[in-house]
Amino acid sequence: MSETLGAYLRWVREELGYSTRKVEMKTEQFPERERVSKSYLSQLERGIGGRPSPEKLLGLAKIYGLSYEDLLGRAGYPGGKPIKEEAPAKPLLTIDIFSPKMQLVLKKIAELHMPLEDQDMIANSVTPMIEREERVMRERKERRKRGKERG
Amino acid sequence: MDNKFKPIYRFIARHKLHSASPVTMQAVCELYNVRYMALSEVTLGFGFATSLEALIAVNQRLHSYSKRMVIAHELSHLLLKHPNSFYLCQLNDWWYNHLELEAQKGAALILVPLRPLIELVSQGSTLRELQEAFEVPEELVHLRLKMTRIAC
């Protein structure tokens, strides 16, 4: 099994602040073949043992909010996305330049380690709404200011 | 009647959502600018609100019953004014988070009206038949039955 997949899964788990026990508990509700025990997960992350089954990868994709296709690709399954030698998914953009509301949205997206294509769609949907709200609020503020100046 | 769900009950009454069964979501789709998006399989949908407008987005790959559930779920977040105005729902989310569970209960209240439910259960309908009657996933019928403490 690819050492890269194991290291990647461990990085994601630690970024989420999950113990292996927590991951095991979260998968308990899933169909049996998708469940991941903590001992199995520990071996997977250390690159020990054979390639994980697609069902196990699906279970992990659901828990971690990752793209199932991407995990299949990283595990070397045909039909999965090709493994790209790049850093793991990061937040879409530097959020400091955005308004507080936009920062909140981007922060939540990043926390959940969403697939990049979902991040794009969400950001593209909410950005115009936030911009409209901010424009209206600025206009109202200016009208109040002008009103006060007139006395 | 649980007081925290009052906004849901008011919404149902104002828009006469329970005048027909299965519940039609047309009014909700128009009011909340519901959009269908090609999201990944782990993202069911999301809801977002500003002071001017609201949006509900649903994964277009879902079965129609699941789409209805996700719309009602996101709507519940908005009606219950859950914190932060941005609600993201992923697979198997609702059992781990009390706000997600609350929104899921709201969805059950919206899509599974009580009187038709009681009638069908008294006629001996199975969970599968209830699912078809209300056009929702079985898990939502199951949750509604649990909320009402009806055995099926």
Please summarize what this structure is.
The complex is a heterodimer of chains A (151) and B (152). With 151 residues, chain A is mainly alpha-helical.
Descriptive notes:
- The complex is a heterodimer of chains A (151) and B (152).
- Chain A is mainly alpha-helical.
- Chain A has helices at residues 3-16, 20-26, 38-45, 54-64, 68-74, 100-111, 116-150.
- Chain A is elongated.
- Chain B contains seven helices and four strands, in the order ααβββαβαααα.
- The mean pLDDT of chain B is 89.
- The chains are: A mainly alpha (151), B alpha+beta (152).
Largest interface: A-B, 29 and 25 residues
Largest sheet of chain A: none
Arithmetic mean of pLDDT of chain A? 79
Q: Write down the secondary-structure element order of chain B.
A: HHEEEHEHHHH
* Shape designation of chain A: elongated
Q: How would you summarize the topology of this molecule?
A:
The complex is a heterodimer of chains A (151) and B (152).
Chain A: H1 3-16, H2 20-26, H3 38-45, H4 54-64, H5 68-74, H6 100-111, H7 116-150
Helix pairs in contact in A: 2-3, 6-7
Chain B: H1 6-14, H2 26-31, E1 35-37, E2 43-49, E3 54-59, H3 64-79, E4 86-90, H4 98-111, H5 114-122, H6 127-134, H7 138-148
Parallel strand pairs in B: 1-3
Antiparallel strand pairs in B: 2-3, 2-4
